[in-house]
Amino acid sequence: MQSGWRPYGLGLVFFLLALPSLAEPLPATSPEAAGLSAERLSRIGKFLKDDAGKGKLPGSVVAVARKGKLVYFEAAGFQDKAAGKIMKKDAIFRVYSMTKPWTSVAAMILVEEGRIQLTDPVSIYLPALKGLKVAIKDANGQSVVPAAREPTIQDLLRHTSGFAYDFLTANAAVKEAYRSAGLKALGRDIRDKMTPPEFIGNIASAPLSSQPGTTWEYSLSTAVLGRVIEAVTGMPLSKFLEQRVFKPLKMPDSGFVVPAAEAGRIAQPLSVNEGIEVFDPATPPANDLGGEGGVSTASDYLRFAQMLLNNGQLEGERILSRTSVALMTSDHLRQDTHAIGSSPIGPGELLLGTQGYTFGLGFMVRQGQGNAAVPGSAGEFMWGGAAGTYFWVDPKEQLAAVFMSQGPLSARVAYRRIIKQLVYAAIVD
């Protein structure tokens, strides 16, 4: 014993051991205490380290919680391979579309306060979006017709608004209109150059890809929802999220820009990251892009996921009611006996390359035990981001997990499946 160390009572020692370290998002326990196998969980790190060593992805961080306790939290590979910087657990990632659940939760906070309703036409809050047109194919080729009804707040949350993504839509007229208007979602112009009013003006100038309420098509809908939140609250989306979500949940590294003092923590993609021109998180955005502009850490995002698993609250801070979380994680693509179609592919095919999933209000939701080609439970919900991030929440298994990476676009679906498989394979109770 050196440096003046003195033994303390065993009670105090056990108390100190039970406290989570500053780097841990939740109180920790052994995997076995939560019904998991430590040996099987270790396969996650081995797999990710091997792939990083082979140059298949730069690096990653995985955080897993079960029964409210942290059971796995490890980093692998490189935070910045070109600079030789090893990945750390507090690395900050561009989460892209994992911004959408934050914005969706923010909208539901306003619903709970009676400030908006899911049935409200979006044009109540954003008048520029009134009188939209729809691009269709008729006997004479392509034409534009009036929308049969206006998109609603519910349409924005479940991606049935008729808005689109330029890189996904099969509607040639919409694809061209978006690109002409600078609405290239995987570029940098929307985030870095386009002000909020310009964004709404540009998207209003383009036709919808389908009649509102008829088709699930992944889109800029949540970015539009962010503009609705700003119109209702009178503050930037980043400020509302900071006040109502990030600060209460103790998510200090989540937002839309990384402070200069923390820029060294930004995880970087490989030199070739095909299909996506990643933005610089240290550059303040021209607007808070609520569908694709966020940054976060695995630790922060696991706390957000655990809040949802806890039916809207974490450590005494309630963000949403249990009933709102239940509504958000229900099937919103079926109206009575009429199922809303999907174009060009459904939620499960887009995120995981498999069927078996529907969509709620901000999340993809598993419909049942069969059909989906990955392990999981009916009612689990999830989403991911274009640069390689992914999270899911499984209420039946009391499980929340986050996978953070800035890996190649072409490999993101496969990594999501593999991480999911490895986590479920570790459940032994």
Strand content: 15-25%
Structural class: alpha+beta
Low-confidence stretches: 1-21
Largest sheet: 8 strands, antiparallel
Shape type: globular
User: Helicity level, as a percent range?
Assistant: 25-40%
What value does the Rg take, in angstroms?
22 Å
Q: Figure out the total of helices.
A: 13
Q: Averaging pLDDT over every residue, what do you get?
A: 92
Could you give the count of β-strands? 18
Distance between the termini: 41 Å
In spatial order, strands of the major sheet run 3-2-1-18-17-16-15-14
Textual characterization of the structure:
- The chain has 429 residues and is α+β, with helices and mostly antiparallel strands.
- The protein has 13 helices and 18 strands.
- The strands form 6 sheets. Strands 3-2-1-18-17-16-15-14 form an 8-stranded antiparallel beta sheet, with helices on both faces.
- Helix 3 crosses helix 8 and helix 3 crosses helix 9 (237-246).
- Residues 1-21 have low confidence and may be disordered.
